[in-house]
């Protein structure tokens, strides 16, 4: 196996063209702000002493809100309570975000630094169905740009269909990991109602 070094990369990939470099902004331009406002889903990548983490974030409306042209706010709704991303943010604020908009081939990428707040007024501004996020992630944008659509096109991401047939269920994974102590068919059967009660 030939493991490459950074000095090898230019010979393989060449230099990026202006369409790759001129699209980068250091703030939320009006065009990028429209994409963010339309996105119901993003992936939040963080880094901490134990390594990296990537966490899906989703909502039934915009997954993030622009506070101004340099800051985004993301409410921390209910999850699995591992708080891997949250813990990383308070220890090392470096984050990356990838926003996807259903039907669009482009992914919007944001790199920056994040801080975590339990500010009552900001939490209240995200009130949804009588519930508040426990905390809010505030991201300071260092750079934002769109990723070309090739990956989404190759994956046929928005073309419908269901590729999940035959995959193990969460209950099966838990049962296998715990020798039957946790999970199983009852876990899967109860999940839809449990999720509905704890969505926010």
Automatic annotation (TrEMBL):
<dbReference type="InterPro" id="IPR012349">
    <property type="entry name" value="Split_barrel_FMN-bd"/>
</dbReference>
<dbReference type="Pfam" id="PF01243">
    <property type="entry name" value="PNPOx_N"/>
</dbReference>
<dbReference type="InterPro" id="IPR011576">
    <property type="entry name" value="Pyridox_Oxase_N"/>
</dbReference>
<dbReference type="InterPro" id="IPR024029">
    <property type="entry name" value="Pyridox_Oxase_FMN-dep"/>
</dbReference>
<protein>
    <submittedName>
        <fullName>Pyridoxamine 5'-phosphate oxidase family protein</fullName>
    </submittedName>
</protein>
<feature type="domain" description="Pyridoxamine 5'-phosphate oxidase N-terminal">
    <location>
        <begin position="28"/>
        <end position="148"/>
    </location>
</feature>
């Amino acid at each position: 196996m030939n493991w490459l070094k950074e000095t090898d990369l230019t010979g393989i990939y060449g230099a990026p063209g202006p369409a790759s470099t001129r699209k980068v902004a250091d703030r939320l331009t009006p065009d990028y702000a429209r994409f963010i406002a339309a996105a119901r889903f993003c992936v939040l990548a963080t880094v901490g002493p134990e390594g990296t983490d990537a966490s899906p974030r989703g909502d039934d409306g915009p997954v993030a809100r622009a506070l101004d042209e340099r800051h985004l706010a993301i409410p921390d709704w209910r999850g699995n309570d591992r708080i891997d991303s949250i813990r990383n943010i308070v220890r090392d604020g470096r984050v990356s975000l990838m926003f996807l908009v259903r039907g669009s081939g482009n992914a919007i990428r944001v790199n920056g630094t994040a801080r975590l707040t339990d500010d009552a007024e900001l939490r209240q501004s995200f009130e949804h169905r009588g519930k508040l996020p426990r905390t809010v992630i505030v991201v300071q944008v260092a750079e934002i740009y769109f990723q070309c659509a090739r990956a989404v096109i190759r994956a046929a991401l928005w073309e419908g269909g269901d590729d999940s047939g035959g995959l193990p269920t969460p209950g099966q994974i838990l049962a296998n990991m715990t020798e039957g102590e946790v999970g199983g068919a009852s876990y899967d059967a109860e999940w839809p109602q449990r999720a509905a009660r704890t969505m926010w």
